[in-house]
Amino acid sequence: MSVILQQAIRRYVTTTLANYGKVEGPSAVSGGHEGGYKIWKRLTYLLAFPAIALCGANCYLAHQKEHAEHHRPPFVKYEHMYIRTKRFPWGDGNRSFFHNPHTNALPDGYENEH
Fold this sequence. Notes:
Elements: H1 2-19, H2 26-30, H3 36-68
Pathway: Energy metabolism; oxidative phosphorylation
Main location: mitochondrion
Family: Belongs to the cytochrome c oxidase subunit 6A family.
């Protein structure tokens, strides 16, 4: 039994190695593929780059429109907000580390009124 199995394995390995690297099938018969990169190059320049530019322009214009319509909400002093039980360890101790005077209010209100 082991002799038959060894012969079968040997036959399989030799035929596999003999056929390794042989090109068969319709693509090997139909011709070369040396011009295929030209199609992808044209698609990249004529389709992909303009699509990226249009998406970027769309994002930029949407961002500009959003900021043109953006108004700061009025300051309302709520009891549960702006509680300072401990000073911040930087600056005057009242402003957070990433403080923006236009958008972030202090406990008394906004710093600059626009």
